[in-house]
Design brief:
Belongs to the glycosyltransferase 68 family. The protein has 13 helices and 11 strands. With about 400 residues, the chain is of the alpha/beta class. The structure holds guanosine-5'-diphosphate, 2-acetamido-2-deoxy-beta-D-glucopyranose (2 copies) and magnesium ion.
């Protein structure tokens, strides 16, 4: 994660325009632009490193969506659509490990809103339209990191086909009827729009896929177009309604910018095991929450906790805070809600509730917390109420970077 941030910071300084390859579709031909059923429509698929979680995947989506949108804005590649990779067997989705079916993006997002920003289609929209029942991907490019990203002391954008040990480590989101005709491994580093150069290696390809899409970096992190894309990532309306109902009934707020509660994202599990320099102990957490309320929120008694902690650990935190006379809230889905929303939807409901809080404290370098911070920027909270983190019990505690919204 740290390296990624160095790289992103690097990219912010780069304004060089990519010299994109010309598309084969003439902007003046209307059918090219608007008809997804058009015979000549080409599809760009991508996949992400299997162990990566939901919220990094959202960031990878934005890289592809911004790339597509910026290319189309220049009148290029108008015959291309971006295929939304289904959500499938995510590592953190504990209650679904066994029964995991690939879930379309509409389970979690408002897909029409995504479509208002970039030309995206769900995989199941294409699969049902494939007459032969099998979807053939012409070329799967498996992206790989360079062994030394700073070769010769500099980080340069580059790519190179790599013929050694080439294989695709995914399974097309559990879809047995998706097949690859050719697999090409490519060492790649740099901005995502350079993937068009790879695509041009096989100009007659109709379906192209990039595995390990997370290796390609943002073209424009933090720009207006980045934020326009981010704003279009509205959640499924049932998730929004459930979160708003919870806020109204438990946290006494009916506005967008609530004043009645503070929220904490307490990331545990793998973070507790492998990042003890970044996360506090249970008692450290309690002290920091109590301190924040005394410093900034003297009138507030309600605290909402979002967490992936095991129930026993979470209950300890809740009881200790209650002992300090706080009213503590945690969203526990009913059995029906869990079946309906799945683990992924419940995690989003927690994020929405954190997004509306008067004050938010997140977990260092958690992409789950980052997405809440972005949401709060979009809602219009003062950034001081947003970019706060839990510190380790001892040692350095770097302030969170402030990625503020651009309208
Ligand atoms: N319901 C809920 N789930 C969480 C919470 N924090 C983490 N998770 C789960 O754990 C996953 C964490 O992975 P990821 O999205 O990659 O975020 P990161 O690992 O914190 O950067 C989330 O996608 C959720 O499934 C939380 O506060 N509430
Ligand atoms: C699939 O077919 C339906 C009905 O013909 C059409 O409305 C839809 O746009 C098609 N989707 C794609 C991605 O081609
Ligand atoms: C709810 O909020 C209103 C102000 O918006 C306040 O007057 C009222 O006392 C609050 N109720 C509770 C139970 O906290
Ligand atoms: Mg993760």
């Amino acid at each position: 994660m740290h390296l990624i941030f160095i790289l992103i910071a690097n990219l912010l300084l780069t304004t060089a325009e990519q010299d994109l390859f010309e598309g084969t579709c003439d902007a003046a031909v209307k059918s090219c632009q608007n008809d997804p059923q058009n015979h000549d429509t080409k599809f760009l698929f991508y996949d992400v490193n299997p162990p990566e979680g939901f919220n990094l995947r959202r960031d990878v989506y934005m890289r592809f969506a911004v790339m597509m949108s910026e290319t189309h804005k220049k009148g290029k590649k108008l015959d291309w659509r971006l295929v939304l990779p289904p959500w499938y067997r995510l590592y953190h989705w504990r209650s679904q490990r066994m029964i995991g079916q690939p879930l379309p993006w509409s389970t979690f997002f408002d897909v029409n809103s995504l479509k208002s920003f970039a030309p995206v289609v769900e995989l199941n929209e294409i699969l049902t339209n494939e007459t032969s029942n099998t979807l053939e991907i012409d070329t799967v490019y498996v992206l790989q990191n360079y062994d030394d990203p700073f070769e010769g002391g500099i980080f340069a954008d580059k790519w190179q086909v790599n013929k050694d040990n080439c294989r695709y480590d995914g399974d097309f989101w559990g879809h047995a009827n998706v097949k690859a005709k050719e697999i090409v491994c490519v060492r790649f580093q740099g901005q995502i729009s350079r993937l068009w150069e790879l695509i041009s290696l096989h100009p007659s390809d109709k379906n192209v896929m990039f595995a390990h899409g997370e290796i390609a970096l943002h073209d424009s992190y933090g720009t207006k177009n980045y934020w326009d894309c981010r704003k279009s990532m509205k959640f499924n309306e049932n998730l929004v309604k459930t979160a708003e109902y919870y806020i109204e009934n438990n946290l006494n707020c009916t506005e967008k910018l609530c004043k009645s509660y503070m929220a904490v994202h307490w990331r545990r599990q793998d973070f507790t095991r492998s990042r003890h320099n970044d996360v506090p102990s249970l008692h450290g957490t309690i002290d920091q929450i109590d301190h924040a309320v005394r410093m900034h929120l003297r009138k507030i008694k309600k605290i909402f906790i979002a967490s992936d902690a095991p129930t026993s650990e979470l209950n300890l935190l809740i009881h200790e805070l209650e002992y300090l006379k706080y009213e503590v809230f945690h969203f526990t889905p009913s059995k029906t809600e869990l079946e309906l929303f799945k683990d992924g939807g419940v995690a989003i409901i927690d994020q929405i509730i954190c997004s509306h809080a008067a004050y938010f404290i997140g977990t260092h370098e958690s992409t789950y917390s980052f997405r809440i911070q972005e949401e709060r920027e979009i809602l219009g909270f003062d950034s001081d109420t947003t970019f706060n983190r839990l510190c380790p019990d001892s040692g350095v505690c770097e302030k969170p970077s402030r990625w503020t919204v651009i309208h």
